[in-house]
Write a structure and sequence with these properties.
The structure holds two protein chains of two kinds. Helix content of chain A is 30%, strand content 18%. By secondary structure, chain A is of the alpha/beta class. In chain B, the strands form three sheets. In chain B, strands 6-1-8-7-9 form a five-stranded mixed beta sheet. A two-stranded antiparallel ribbon of chain B has the order 2-3. The chains are: A alpha/beta, B alpha/beta.
């Protein structure tokens, strides 16, 4: 019965989110820090290099790390302000237990851990091992991701482990594996700078990955044509040579239509198709009827623009295709990805200098976090949990019997559904805030309230953690050593700068201690993050994500190493497929037939407008971290409803008028922002806020059948103007909203 | 005796077209303890109704600074490196003459402090051989600090321009604006 133990306002008053501003004169000690620690930003998949200034076990500021090759000192506002998480007043400093009617009270570590372990035993004895589930996050380092996977399978003995990458790039991962047999960006981003054509599909690069903007515009400086596909005129789309304002949910129709034009005009690399690919005929057959008229009607993009995109993409000598959540957050996310890959393969522009393809990973360790085995269907090295050979190898590395290794479990959204059905009774989560980040999130609240026991490892009391029975205070990014893998596939070092404050402990030590108390100590004898990494290297050996040749020293000597890197004398692989040997069973890249189908929810008379969601530059994902940093909150204090003036005029909506958005899942109110930079049939709301400000109350829980990613990016809605102006932006109210 | 390590081969280049409105520059500028957490650089939407285009403005460090000329208290000075410094706190009388005189709209009167403050090109950093914080962090290249040669390699299709005309008033600045190749002057206001 994990309801919030006292009114939410009381919890907020004690645990935040509250806003941290640095003192006007700056934190003391910046001029003479004890230490300057080279590490990386804790936010998106760019993992920009940054130097943290440390004084008396506190992060007191930062300096740009200009030598780091990807960002050369460049940072976005989140990176500039990230140091303010350290020593934040909201920081959890000791274990907490919920007391009904009284809130959360401190409890000793021993008592907290005893309770966690006894509840795990009780629930598993009564309902079976899989009735206790685990959810983990992709902000975790590679070492912690690996540890979470092993912990769930070996210590908890549950098959129901999944991660919040399920809400991020799993469509890309599944598409990549189908087409190439391996899931990684094909190139480092330096190749972008020299491509003749750059196509950005469904990515608001300048707000979600600002430092990547440099590389795209470097290409433009060198003469590249930039094509951006987005229903909104985002800052990157504003500067594009060609902006294709697509109707949300129609992506595969566009890429199918471009493929149709490539075939029609014979802009194909026949040698590459014949020698290095399979199933081109299937891809061709699927787009036979996708002429320009059909494409214009389906996508809402003028046919001249679609033709122009094909004319630029087709005959180019070099090109780079990038995509992100705009095409992946769909019930046909994998199909969208495969339709994009078809364009790359048809022109043979992969595995060559300045020719590439990549998904831009959203979360900090979105790449590494999907390689080391904390997905429900995966073992380390990107191995398949249902493959007998893979199971045998990992069992041998872990020193267990293969029969004791659980099989494939439920995905993140399915775990929530299973809790609601009463099949899962206990949950442990680490760095995952599903009450904000999952779609249709009222079902998450229902699920949390049905759990018999819920425990959380985190450093702030997130909206989800408010429902916990036991909260274990974990560690910030700068409080543990480790590695992460950037969106480019570059493994970089995260360096510990300070110790966890108060009685907080490192995430690793908490998981190891629970494992010990569960009787699995012999499998978890790690003395350091490097020892975990060294086991990860062995576990990944021979897998598609092979880290075997990567060492901490090698990373530090080279400012990162690109996987695959099978041996210690291997230099790493910045550009894949130069040998034309793909990681599929037949060694070839695979085309896929991608017939277009509609999104799961389409507009009708009752819900006539398309709702899409995304991010703003000053906030990060569920906002658990960034909604606590003063200036980031001030920059964009509350979610706004972006609406085209023509649609607003038809509905009688004025600037900053409160508008009620209604979908089949519920209703919520947002201030209107009238902008000509969005399609007339579409409205947009960013998703970083909780409670009444959460747009994910309204989004759809339809899942892609392969990747099980939810369809965040398109649903049908109705808009009801409330004929009253929204109050002035009240950041305190919005950021702390229950 | 000159005790600074100011690098005279490095210049400031500003490209408003490249601004993505992220405000990283403002936040990085505010980290300077001499500013009291106030940014001395400003980013604004041009007109959010029509476009996502934003505009970024730093002090242009005029060769013949009108703000200093208009200051009745001699609070604003230009140094040997061409940097126009923020008002001397002991002299500034907060009259706002500089605010009204600047053709670029840069100086701001900070009301609670009764003081004019503006960008001094991160003198605390540039005098120590470092780059201004805003230009170092700018993720999109709207702000760049380096040599003219480096900028030439990065932007082969653009030219740095530091000559401006406001009606009949011509202004030459230390800071360069990136313009299409071949441009020599930026006419801001044709009266």
């Amino acid at each position: 019965m994990a309801t919030v133990p006292v009114p939410v306002e009381e919890v907020i008053s004690r645990f935040g989110p509250s806003l941290n501003f640095p003192p006007a004169e700056g934190y003391p000690g910046r001029d003479e820090p004890d230490e300057v620690v080279k590490t990386h930003c804790c936010f998106c998949g760019m993992q920009c290099g940054i130097k943290l200034l440390v004084k008396d076990n506190k992060i007191v500021g930062f300096e740009p790390w200009e030598e780091f090759p990807f960002n050369e000192g460049r940072l976005c506002p989140k990176g500039v302000q990230r140091y303010l998480q350290n020593n934040h007043t909201d920081r959890l400093l000791e274990p907490l237990e919920r007391v009904e009617g009284k809130g959360f009270r401190p409890v000793a570590w021993d008592a907290a851990l005893d309770r966690v372990v006894s509840e795990i035993h009780r629930i598993q004895a009564r309902y079976g091992p899989d009735a206790f589930a685990m959810l983990s996050g992709v902000s975790l380092t590679n070492e912690k991701s690996y540890l979470a996977g092993k912990f769930a399978r070996v210590a908890l003995k549950t098959r129901n482990l999944d991660y919040n990458g399920r809400l991020c790039m799993v469509s890309a991962g599944a598409g990549n594996k189908k087409a190439f047999g391996l899931d990684r960006a094909s190139n480092n981003f330096e190749d972008l700078a020299h491509a003749e054509v750059v196509m950005v599909c469904g990515s608001n690069v300048s707000e979600t990955f600002p430092t990547l903007t440099h590389w795209i515009w470097q290409a433009r400086d060198n003469g590249a044509k930039l094509i951006v596909v987005d229903p909104r005129l985002t800052p990157i789309a504003r500067t594009a040579d060609l902006h294709l304002p697509i109707r949300p949910g129609r992506d595969s129709a566009l890429y199918g239509a471009i493929l149709h034009q490539l075939i029609k005009h014979d802009w194909l690399d026949h040698d590459f198709i014949a020698n290095h690919t399979t199933d081109f005929e299937k891809a061709k057959e699927a787009v036979v009827g996708y002429d320009l008229e059909w494409a214009e009607h389906t996508t809402g993009i003028p046919k001249e623009k679609i033709l122009k995109a094909a004319q630029w993409w087709g005959p180019a000598k070099t090109s780079f295709l990038l995509h992100a959540r705009g095409i992946e957050h769909h019930s046909k996310g994998v199909e969208n990805v495969l339709a994009c890959i078809n364009l790359v393969l048809a022109t043979g522009r992969i595995g060559k200098p300045y020719c590439g393809y990549a998904t831009i990973t959203g979360q900090g360790n979105g790449q590494g976090g999907r390689e080391h085995g904390h997905k429900c269907d995966q073992l380390p090295g990107n191995r398949d949990i249902e493959n007998p050979e893979h199971r045998k190898y990992i069992s041998s590395v872990w020193g267990i019997e293969e029969k004791d290794l659980p099989g494939k479990g439920l995905t993140a959204y399915e775990i929530i559904e299973a809790i609601n059905r009463g099949e899962i009774k206990g949950l442990l989560s680490i760095c995952f805030n599903p009450l904000v980040s999952l779609p249709n999130n009222s079902i998450v609240r229902e699920a949390l309230e049905k759990l018999e026991f819920y425990t959380v490892i985190d450093f702030f009391l997130s909206e989800t953690a408010r429902h916990a029975d036991i909260v274990l205070p974990g560690s910030l990014h700068e409080e543990e050593d480790g590695t992460v893998t950037t969106a480019e596939g570059r493994v970089v070092r995260i360096r510990k700068a300070v110790n966890p404050p108060g009685n907080a402990r490192t995430d690793t030590s908490i998981l190891l201690e629970i494992a010990r108390r569960l009787g699995a100590e012999k499998y978890f004898r790690f003395g350091s993050s490097e020892e975990i990494f060294n086991e990860l290297r062995v576990a990944s050996k021979g897998g598609t994500a092979d880290y075997n040749g990567i060492t901490y020293k090698k990373i530090e000597d080279n400012m990162g190493v690109f996987w695959p890197c099978p041996t210690e004398d291997h230099p790493g692989t910045p550009r894949l497929w130069e040998d034309r040997k793909f990681k599929t069973a037949d060694g070839k890249a695979h085309f896929h037939g991608v017939p277009y189908r509609e999104p799961s929810e389409v507009t009708d008379a009752e819900f006539p407008v398309i709702l899409t969601t995304g991010r703003v530059v000053s906030q990060y994902l569920s906002g658990s971290q960034t909604r606590r940093i003063g200036k980031l909150v001030q920059q964009y204090p509350e979610p706004l409803l972006e609406i085209h003036p023509k649609l607003a005029a038809r509905l009688g909506i004025q600037e900053r008028e409160l508008v009620r958005i209604v979908t089949r899942r519920g209703a919520a109110e947002f201030p209107a922002q009238l902008v000509e930079t969005i399609r007339e049939d579409t409205v947009f709301v960013p998703y970083h806020w909780p409670g009444k400000k959460s747009i994910n109350q309204l989004t759809s829980g339809h899942l892609d059948p392969i990747s099980k990613i939810p369809e965040f990016k398109v649903c049908a809605c109705r808009l009801e103007p409330l004929q009253r102006q929204a109050p002035p932006p009240g950041e305190t109210k919005a950021h702390a909203s229950a | 005796m000159n005790t600074t390590t100011f690098r005279t081969d490095q210049e400031f280049f500003l490209d408003p077209q490249r601004c993505i409105g992220c405000h990283a520059c403002e936040m990085a500028c505010a980290e300077c303890e001499t500013n009291g957490q106030l940014p001395m650089i400003h980013v604004d939407y041009v007109d959010r109704f029509f476009t996502t285009q934003t505009s970024v403005q730093i002090c242009m460090h005029c060769e013949d600074p009108v703000c200093a000329k208009a200051c009745p208290a001699d609070a604003i000075t230009k140094d040997e490196f061409g940097i126009v410094h923020t008002a001397n706190t002991a002299r500034c009388i907060a009259c706002s003459n500089c605010v009204n005189a600047c053709p670029f709209g840069v100086p701001k009167k900070i009301e609670p402090m009764d003081l004019m403050m503006k960008c001094n090109m991160c003198y605390d950093r540039t005098s120590a051989g470092k780059k201004p914080m805003c230009a170092t962090v700018c993720p999109s290249g709207a702000l760049f600090y380096g040599t003219r040669e480096e900028m030439g390699k990065r932007r082969p299709n653009s030219t740095p321009v530091n000559q401006f005309r406001f009606g009949k008033q011509s202004v030459k600045t230390k800071v360069n604006i990136m313009m299409p190749k071949g441009a020599t002057e930026l006419v801001v206001d044709e009266l």
